[in-house]
Design a protein that fits this description.
The chain starts with a helix and ends with a helix. Helix content is 33%, strand content 23%. It is built from 14 helices and 21 strands. A 9-stranded mixed beta sheet has the order 5-4-6-7-8-9-10-15-14, with helices on both faces. Strands 20-19-18-21 form a 4-stranded mixed beta sheet. Strands 1-2-3 form a 3-stranded antiparallel beta sheet. By secondary structure, it is an alpha/beta fold. 43% of the residues are buried. The chain is globular, with a radius of gyration of 22 Å.
């Protein structure tokens, strides 16, 4: 993919601030009490600012909130994407920014009238892909991007590069979104001065990806999980001859099968980071730590049930509430994120920040049938385990599922139809139906991601 000069300069500016500044993420070595105190101090400053500068939050925070900051914080009702978009100009706490300005700027970038999502040299605008059925608009400061890159690349990747001697002749290949409007493309493209970088679109044909990667021979890969699975399958077929030393995914759920496949092909454990367009990076992983380390020096993360009540019960956790303590421009306080996670205590190496044991996916990825039968879309995700399948999409229908599959000729279609019918019967779906369609192409989102699970309320089948 061609990188224009504006994009290259943006990456270089962020990289300079990421790798050349003196301070990094020293707080990762702090104990739990220290981290909670850092959060309290940052939260106090954030609430003080938004009370004075955000119309939305002004009447939600009492004048004497500093007498009990945490109580004032928990008294603020969770903010959903729907509420944010309905009250956008009231939520924003910077008079230079309006929803109309953001929409117009992003539209001009999309149409080619502007070359960058950067506004006035300090704001970066973005839009979510609308995978939940509702598009969102967001604003971050470039300083926030730098903080995330310090955490993900300077700290977490830096730990691995130093410990396992991965810095020599480092080459980073990015296989992700093809649009500069997607923050993931910018975050993944930040590298040190002496590191070679190749950026490829995730929706390229497999043979084109293999050709580019075979010539480049990356030592590090930063990609969507679906792209990693595709590359591993191509390597098994003999079409891809690379020996990456570190692979990190983000933007999609990393399945156990993709991990196993990559381990078999390249002999390494695939890592992942976890973030959203709204909040940027929330957690990241290194070889040195079990699980993803939550960046709790930057975010407050709460786990809630489907009714947004606080819970630590893994069986009841249905969403997250995330507060980005650094974003004063578009302050998202107790913002609802539709991801189901499993949180575990801090490690000995990073004793202050909790970790994610797993990321289970979006809570709205449920198939709801008549008589209130609710089935997680991931129950049907068994195709991920079949090596003959390179890509697939599962659409809910009124009485079952319709699945598009890119696969080898020997793929046993009837076997999976019978398995999926038995699953639907077991859950009590009446007159279940399963269609599996062998296709040559799977639709990618604008960001390059593959959306595997598509509920009826989104696909309108």
């Amino acid at each position: 993919m061609y990188l224009n000069s504006t994009y290259k300069k943006l990456l270089r500016d962020i990289a300079d601030a990421t790798f050349n500044s003196k301070n990094s993420n020293e707080y990762l070595s702090f104990n739990r009490e220290d981290i909670l105190e850092i959060q309290r101090e940052k939260l106090t400053k954030l609430l003080r600012f938004v009370k004075s500068n955000s119309k939305y939050y002004a009447d939600k925070i009492n004048d004497d909130f500093e007498d009990d900051v945490l109580k004032a914080f928990y008294d603020i009702s969770p903010l959903t994407k729907k509420a944010l978009m309905a009250n956008w100009d009231d939520v924003v706490a910077d008079k230079e920014i309006t929803k109309e300005i953001v929409e117009k700027h992003l539209e001009d970038v999309k149409d080619g009238k502007l070359k960058t999502p950067i506004y006035k040299d300090k704001y970066i605008f973005s839009a979510s892909s609308g995978s939940s059925g509702l598009r969102g608009l967001y604003v971050h400061l470039l300083d926030g991007m730098v903080a995330d890159c310090k955490f993900v690349w300077r700290t977490m990747e830096g730990i691995d590069d130093e410990k396992y001697d991965l810095k020599k002749n480092k080459k980073v290949a990015v296989v992700a979104s093809s649009t500069i409007l997607h923050l993931g493309l910018i975050l993944r493209g930040v590298v040190e001065d002496d590191t070679q970088l190749l950026v490829l679109s995730a929706d390229m044909k497999a043979n084109e990806l293999c050709e580019k990667l075979n010539a480049f021979k990356p030592t590090h890969i930063r990609a969507y999980a679906s792209a990693v699975k595709l590359l591993a399958n191509e390597a098994l077929k003999g079409n891809l001859s690379i020996t990456p030393k570190r692979i990190v995914t983000g933007g999609e759920v990393l399945t156990a099968e993709t991990k196993r496949l990559a381990k078999e092909v390249w002999g390494i454990h695939v890592l992942q980071h976890f973030g959203t367009t709204e909040t940027l990076i929330i957690a990241a992983e290194s070889f040195a730590n079990e699980g993803l380390v939550l960046d709790e020096g930057k975010c407050i993360i709460e786990t809630v049930d489907e009714n947004l009540n606080l819970t630590d019960d893994p069986e009841k956790i249905n969403k997250l509430l995330v507060t980005n303590l650094h974003n004063y421009t578009l302050p998202l306080i107790r913002y609802v994120i539709d991801d189901i996670v499993d949180i575990m205590p801090p490690s000995d190496d990073m004793p202050g920040c909790r970790r994610l044991r797993s990321i289970k996916g979006r809570s709205f990825n449920y198939f709801i049938y008549d008589n209130d039968i609710k089935i997680s879309g991931y129950v049907f995700d068994i195709l991920d385990e079949d090596r003959k399948v390179s890509e697939y999409q599962i659409y809910q229908t009124k009485h079952g599922v319709s699945i598009n599959v890119i696969c080898e000729h020997s793929f046993n279609k009837d076997k999976y139809i019978n398995i999926l019918l038995s699953i639907l019967n077991r859950y009590g779906v009446k007159n279940p139906s399963v269609d599996i369609n062998i296709v040559d192409f799977i639709t990618h989102e604008q960001t390059g991601k593959v959306k595997h699970i598509i509920p009826l309320k989104i696909n309108n089948t």
